[in-house]
Amino acid sequence: MNFNQILNHWYSANKRDLPWRKTKQPYAIWLSEIILQQTQIKQGLPYYEAFITKFPTVFDLAKAKEDTVLKLWQGLGYYSRARNLHASAKYIVTELNGIFPITYNSLLKLKGVGDYTASAIASICYNEATAVVDGNVYRVLARYFGIGTPINTTQGIKEFKSLATSLIDKKNPGDYNQAIMEFGARQCKPKNPDCNACPLNKGCVALQKNKIGILPIKLKKTKVSKKYFNFLVFVSDDNNTLFEKRTEKGIWKNLYQFPLIETDNSLTIDNFKKHPLISLYFKSIDFDFSLYNNIDIIHKLSHQHLHTKFWIIKVDKLHTKGLKISKLKALPTPILISNFIDEFNFE
To answer: Is 343 a residue of the active site?
Structure first.
C-alpha cells in the first residue's frame, strides 16, 4: 500500500466517533472547524454540541444577538473566531439566501475562513480535492518525508501545501484529509509517539534519522510581553457595580469587564489610591477599598501575559449608572473576569 492508502486504512479502524463526522452538511462541518481552530477536540466538543443545539441552522445563528454568541463561546478564547462566525452566518443568510458556498474559492470569501477551513469544508462536504494542512498534517509530512523547512515561513507553507496536494486521494479527499489529521493527532503525536506501532514506520525518514523529536521545525515566536491590569470592582450599598463593554479592536472586543487601569508595573496598596486615574471614578477621594488578590493572577495569552489585580471598592452609591450585580453572569466576559465573578462573594 502507498502513503494515502495506509492512512485511509488506519483511519477506517481508528477514527473517533465524533458528531460532525456523521454528516456532510456544510453548516455543521464549518461550525466544527471554526470551534476546533487552536482548540483540542476534548475542549471543543462541548462547545460544538452547545452551539448546534442553540443554533441548529445557519438562520438561527444569523438572527442571534452577538452577546448571546459570545456568551456561548466564553472560555474558548480567540473571540474573533466567534465574531467572524456570527458575521459569516449573517452574510450567508442575507447575501446568499441561506445557501452555503460550495467551492474552495467561494468559501474563502467567508469572514474567518482561510485555506485550511475552506479545504476541509470543500473536501468533506463537496468532494473537492483540496488538501488540508494544519498542525497535525505538518507534523506527519515533516517527519515522514524528513522536511526541515520551518512550517511558519512563507516557503514552508507553500512547500507543505504543494506536497499535501500531490498526496491527496482525489477519489475520496474528505476522508483522506480527516485521516491524515486524525493520524497526526493520535498516532504521530507531538511528544513520545509510539513509532513501533506506526504503520508508516518503514518509510519514515525522521524515524530512520532519529529526528522524531526535532521535526517539524518552527521558528521561535515573537517575545511574549507583560501587561499589568488593575480591575476596579465597585460594590455599592444597593448591589450595583460598574461593567463596561470593550469596543476597541483587540482579542476581547465586545466582551464586558470591570473598569480597567493598565499600569507599567504591579501596583501595591500604598500606591493604588494615589494613582491619578482613580479619581476619575469618585467625587471625593474618600472610599473604602481592599485588594482581592495580593499576588498577581497571571492570565497567559499567546502573545502576552496579563498580571492582574482585582481591587474591591465599597461605595455608598455609584456616581454613574451601574449594573445590578445579579446580572453580571448573563453577559459575555473574558474567562479571567468570569472566573473572578464565580469565585468572589458579592454578598
So the answer is: no
